[in-house]
Amino acid sequence: MANAEANAAKRQDSGSQAPAPALKPRETLYTQLADILRAKIYSKEWKPRTKIPSEHKLMEQFNVARGTVRKALKSLVDEGLLVQMRGSGTYVAEPGISHPAGVRPLSFADSLAEQGKSFKTIVIEKWTAPASFEVAAELGINAGEEVMFMRRVRTVDDEPVMCQESWLNLGACPGLFDIDYTAESLFNAVQRCSGRKIKTSNMRYSARTAGIEYGSLLACSETAALLLLEQNISLEDGTIIEWTNTWFRPGQSIVGTAIQRD
């Protein structure tokens, strides 16, 4: 249900509005609502520092009681995703502190292979769509240009270790959609289809609560703290080819070397 909401938000262009999903009646109704609202923040449909709809509008949109809305909002405030300002409303919080992780793009397929880990790649979904303003800004292209979205889960010994969600610049990489990503890594496919090498990556990482959606994909508690790595990956000529979010199951880490520039 939360997955459907997130995907609908990703597929819509900047001028459309996805219909509100129906919540399934169960004891933890507010956790379902919190997961939908969390997805809006994670996907940047709700941008930092912007005001979100009022409690009354959320009640109407999702057909739930005020208490359910308040519990959902409180859980996101406790996570640091929302900030409530008395007399003004509720806002998406400023991004947390970011730290450099180097500039070398991370190929997790290569990393797992180097560690001697036998892994499988499961493609959860793959489709093309016109780029929204948010996706276009991240890829350095014009809104409306065709882009590809892919969500993959990688498993080691049949246990999920990471979920990767990638937006890709098809104009710079023809043929990318037709690749079998259970057999070839996206990193290698990009270099082969573009005819250019991947050179740099702008990385940001943060801690995020899994929620229902990522908890299910990574077989962990919905309250678990996940490491999220966001990358904008560029080819050797500076063309941004990929904007990707990698969600790591608890117990994973990123290890690297940072070099101070003169």
Helix tally equals 8
Per DSSP E runs of 2 or more residues, the count of β-strands stands at 8
Q: So what's the oligomer here? A: single chain
In percent terms, what proportion of residues is strand? 25-35%
* Helix-and-strand structural type: alpha+beta
Radius of gyration (Å): 19 Å
Distance between the termini: 50 Å
Average pLDDT reading: 82
Main β-sheet, spatial strand arrangement: 3-4-5-8-7-6
Gross geometry: globular
Q: Which residue ranges are poorly predicted, with pLDDT under 50 across at least 5 consecutive positions?
A: 1-18, 257-262
Helix percent band: 25-40%
Please outline the major beta sheet. Answer: 6 strands, antiparallel
Helix and strand string, N-terminal first?
A: HHHHEEHEHEEHEHEE
Walk me through the structure.
By secondary structure, the protein is α+β, with helices and mostly antiparallel strands. The chain has helices at 2-11, 29-42, 55-62, 66-78, 108-114, 133-139, 186-194, 211-217, and strands at 82-85, 89-92, 119-130, 146-156, 159-169, 198-209, 225-235, 240-248. A six-stranded antiparallel beta sheet has the order 3-4-5-8-7-6. Strand 4 (146-156) and strand 5 (159-169) form a beta hairpin. The longest helix has 14 residues, at 29-42. The chain starts with a helix and ends in a 14-residue tail after the last strand. The relative contact order is 0.14.
Short descriptors:
disordered N terminus; 28% strand
What would a concise description of this structure say?
The protein contains 8 helices and 8 strands, in the order H-H-H-H-E-E-H-E-H-E-E-H-E-H-E-E. With 262 residues, the chain is of the alpha+beta class.
